[in-house]
Amino acid sequence: MNSLNIKQLLDDLISQAMRHAGIDEPIAQIRQSQKPEFGHYQANGMMAAAKKAGSAPRMLAQRVVDMLDGHSEFDFEIAGPGFINIRLTAQFIERNMTDFQLHESPATRADTRTVVIDYSAPNLAKEMHIGHLRSTVIGDTAARVLEFCNHRVVRANHVGDWGAQFGSLLAYLDQITVPGEEISSKLVDLEKFYQSASKLFRVDQNFAAKAREYVVKLQRKDSRCHKLWEKFIAISLDHCQTVYHKLNISLTQADVKAESAYNDDLPVIVEQLQGRGLLTESDGAQCVFLDEFKGQNERPLPAIVRKSDGGYPYLATDLAAARYRSQIINADEVLYFVGASQQLHLRQVFAVASAAGFTKPQQIFRHLPFGLILKADGKPFKTRDGADVKLIDVLDEATRRAFTLINEKNSSMPEQQQLAVAEVVGIGAIKYAELSKNRTTDYIFDWDSMLSFEGNTAPYLQYAYTRIRSLFRKRPTQENSPVNRMTLTEDQEILLAIRVLQFTEAIDAYLEDYQANILCQYLYELASSFMKFYEHCPVLSEAQDIQDSRLHLAKVTAHILQTGLSLLGIQTVEQM
User: Fold this and answer.
1) Neighbour tally for 134: CB within 10 Å
2) Which of 28, 131, 298, 547 is the most exposed place for a label (fewest CB within 10 A)?
3) How many whole angstroms from its chain centre is CA 185?
4) Could you tell me the CA-to-CA distances from 359 to 112, 222, 323, 329, 393 in Å, in that order?
């Protein structure tokens, strides 16, 4: 696949011309103009550059344009106080479309690096709920895109499998289990099991005391207690894997690096912090106080590493994980896709880890927060009784609703095929609705809008793909035929070709801040451009050279649509 980034290409071209024009530090900025559908870009920054050079902006812009004489694939024009408008010529578009390689890997980048991605991370005390959707889907997209760009990705599913709540769960499991009975049958519904154990803990003091004993037993690795815990975790992880499979998430059980994996490291963490003079005792707890963290009245905020009862909070475990990712994995970058509510916690983790030397100065540890999923009334997405909505139930509901729509749209399709298509469309709709929103904002979960075949939705993109595939069902022999030369004359086909060539540009824009809505918007514009092309530009009825050119354009468009959706973890179908 072509690794052409038009903005970067133009930026390099303008920067080189500015240097030749006597500007040692080019500061032009390339952006798409208000009419990118005609291949228009604009170079800004001439006024600042002119001020530095002691020149009038338009005069400087003219000097730069003069330096670009000979680059016939672009038209340059000076506008306003010194902007340079740049238009891609038909020659540039046709040449790059003719050379487009469908099966070529993206060029390995000079900054190829090892990236750890901390995402999903459900608490194994209960089943995954709707709140896990954002971290899971957003993080998985980042993993897919980074691997697509040839970076080494380490998926880290930092599941919660340790802590006080497991004392209650294990005590309850022990209490209700009959000798010789299969334990897995008790955990068919993890949510109900969790609720029963929690309720008993609140109302039965004897049970609560027993649960606390189990916490101690678990920490000391009591053999029987540990064996119960291992079975509980195994069953819980199976539940998670079922959700991942249905949601088309690339996480496997091999990617699990649970909280318990760092348990033996926690005393070492405390010892090393003590050795570096960072620990202070406060109300019996061992804390790190850093000047950058202040609370009300400028009082220092503690980062608690060991509690007064000798237990370890999440911060200690996260410090151990940061040290492992830095020193054992030797990551260049670690991305944490964790809710916005954990912002202070992760800032403290990163700061303490850095101060203690657990991480290296050149390594990047970055929190990428996200907002909440809300119901139509603007309240958190929960059941009527206030319980978390199970994610598996949401996915099943999506498939059911999609099946109804597919049946209405194409009732002649065999039922088994309808069911297969409905699963792809339903799951894709949920993921795309999530990814097409700004990562940092809350959004309302709306079945009707996400499953619509119109607008910026997964079904719309998937349908555009099936339209292209229908062309090649009519002309199967031409699917793998090379094109000798592209001929682009109509506005709709020029627009579509430009959209295709902007794919790498969209990928690079996504990687700036891991905002998947940028990639979604690009794919939507690509699909919309194809629909306009499909309506206005006949394909199979044209002369052979035009037909070959337009079929090649359609083939490349289908490939980009399928590739882009796959980076979002969304599948395509041949027919709807």
Assistant:
1) 24
2) 298
3) 35
4) 20, 34, 6, 11, 40
Output the six-digit token pair for 539: 């394909």
Assign 281 to helix, strand or coil: strand
Give the number of other CB atoms < 10 A from CB of residue 56.
15
| Residue-by-residue DSSP string for 459-527 | HHHHHHHHHHHHHHHHSGGGTT---S-----SHHHHHHHHHHHTHHHHHHHHHHHT-HHHHHHHHHHHH
Domains detected in the chain: 6-88 (3.30.1360.70)
The one-letter amino acid at 424: V
Q: Is the pTM of this model over 0.85?
A: yes
Calpha distance 529→548 (Å, rounded): 19
User: What's the confidence (pLDDT) of residue 184?
Assistant: 66
Strands (E) across 52-147 are located at: 74-79, 83-88, 114-118
Residue 3 has pLDDT above 70, yes or no: no
Q: How does DSSP classify residue 324?
A: I
| Mean pLDDT of the chain, nearest integer | 90
Is residue 68 within 8 Å of 84, Cβ to Cβ? Answer: no
Q: Residues 209-260: pLDDT tens digits?
A: 888 888 878 877 888 888 888 888 888 899 999 999 999 999 999 999 999 9
Average pLDDT over residues 68-75: 87
Residues 153 and 117 sit within 8 Å (Cβ to Cβ): yes
